[in-house]
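Q: How would the structure tokens look for this protein?
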Amino acid sequence: MSYPGYPPYGQPPQGQAGGYYQQPPPPQQQPLYGAPPPQGQYYQQPPQQGYGQPPPPAGQSYGAPPQQYGAPPPGPPPGQYQQQPPYGAPPPQAGYGAPPPQHGYGAPPPQGYGAPPPQPYGAPSPQPGYGAPPPQQYGQQPPPQQYGAYPPQQPAAHYPPTPPSPGYGPPQIIQWNADGDANALRSAMKGFGTDEKTLIRVLATKDPLQMAALRDAFTRIHRRNLEADVKSETGGWLETGLITLVRGPLLQDVHLLRDAMSGLGTKEAVLNDVLLGRSNADINAIKSEYQRVFRRRLEDDVRGDLSMKTERHFMIVLGAQRAEDAAPVVQSEIDRDVSDLYTATEGKVGTDEIKVCSILSTRNDNQIRAIAYTYQQKYARNLEEVIRREFSGHMEEALLYQLRRGLDKYMHQAQLLEDAMAGMGTKDALLIGRVIRAHWDRTNMANVRGAYEKRYHRSLASRIKGETSGDYERMLLACIGENI
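A: Here is the predicted structure in token form.
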């Protein structure tokens, strides 16, 4: 599948004879034949300054993500997309358009890609700034190795584990006083009427650790439960969104899973959103929290709700055996996976579904990108097209979800948001879950906005305004970083 601005699979961009744009090799290294293309990137633009706002502090680049969460994150101008020089060209010199050397929120980690970030859990996301190359470029691995090289084989345990996402690690004590916001929330809900704007302003601008501190402060100061108070004072989709914020990402995930598997039928899209493409650390945190909250094993509930090979697919996912992000892309292993995928699908009568599920569920994003590229080069067919032809139903949707997320996680999230708003009526529950899940990581949210504008040629904010209204609209806009 090709997005606008991307060359279609197997076709070179205009003006270039060599096929995909390629990430240039590190200095002093010769490129190796068959290196895969980089993942799409989105330019970072200066944050919009409101009336009366001071210029950025000295030493801070205008390309850095906004310092105050809730301020509008940057987005690329329509049609602008950062392209890579041809494969084998000299490395570009730093200059205009190169990611600035940031030292604040969103700065690229100083160590090699794939190494664990030095920040403690709850520190700003270790992903690079908006518009900078994604941390794990297609075909890139910890230096000095390169895609196509044959590094010594190491057990998976030797690679540094991918850290948990914000809100999925152990509890942390942060140096932030939540008492003022706790009092503001109580004042907004006590007495006659409710100040919804204050609820939105306070709750939609907190990161996962601040939200945990705010819940604790509300209980300590007022001897009340924040989630229960918000439920009693609000209603409709605004209530759904605010409760999602109050719970934080991990607790909300387990509630979504329980709701998706309760009653008649299964909400397959929710299972996909919560479980697919997650790191091993996140999956283990979700299983542990599900057990703590509901006194049930998540694996047992999934087995009871799914059936046959789709059940086995999700058991592989819940096994948390995905390659860590630091695991390199090895040419021989990619070739083997590509051959196995062909043998399991096009190369035989019938389909070996579990082989395909196992490969896409246990490879990291870099490896999935390399597999998709190599499959296209070897068999002249798009891997997404193969999945569509060989699979159907929930398994098809789950495999496409894993493939697309591996190819470009920002564009994939943008597509999921559009899917929740497209067609007759708005899928409000999905829209709220997807907006707030992206919102917990500020740099991720800014990149998703840029990808959305690149794909659909309009801003995410304008699209949300066309689908929602009132306090519900204001809540979603605050979550994507708009001033309200």
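The mean pLDDT is 78.

DSSP finds 19 helices and no strands in the chain.

Upvote if useful.
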